[in-house]
Amino acid sequence: MDDLTKIPLWEWLPIFGWRIVAVVDAADNVPQRLPRNGAVLVGSPTRPKWIAFDCPCRRGHRILLNTDKGRFPYWTTTVQGPLTISPSIACDDPVWRCHYLVRNGRVRWIHERDQASSSVYQPKRSGR
Ligand SMILES: [Zn+2]
Q1: How far is the CA of 43 from the centre of ligand 1 (A)?
Q2: Nearest to residue 101, comparing CAs of 82, 120, 119, 117?
Q3: What are the residues facing 66 on neighbouring strands?
């Protein structure tokens, strides 16, 4: 196996929140297996091109997000410490309908219902 894809042993312990566990130079070098809550940066820590991780729904699909500001859409991500990715991550694939935020190492699921209710503007009734 390529040395760049080596994930330190302790990173496999299931005690961490979401964070970056490795940086690889090409998308092909992202390891097949990733630790729970572990994401891999492709590129360099200062100029990441992609962030790859297994979807927190645990149904076994991999997420690959563009982090290169030269291409759209792109996501911004923290490199060290608890992982924060913005904006939210949405899979529109009919098989994998997943929509969530990664904030401070934790996943917050966004449900269609919540989304709908928060985006609907409801004017306040005044008087009668
Ligand atoms: Zn998913």
Answers
A1: 24
A2: 82
A3: 50
Of residues 14 and 23, more confidence is placed in 23
> Model pTM greater than 0.85?
no
If you measure from the C-alpha of residue 14 to the centroid of ligand 1, how many angstroms do you get, rounded to a whole number? 19
Q: From the CA atom positions of the chain, what is the Rg in Å?
A: 17
- The partner residues of 41 in beta bridges, in order of sequence, read 23, 51
DSSP string, 58-114: -SS-EEEEE--TTSSS--EE-SSSS--EEEEEEE--SS--EEEEEETTEEEE--HHH
pLDDT tens figures, 73-105: 999 999 999 999 999 999 988 888 999 999 999
d(CA 56, CA 42): 19
Please write the tens of the pLDDT for every residue from 40-51: 999 999 999 999
Angle at 65 between CA 91 and CA 51, to 5 degrees: 130
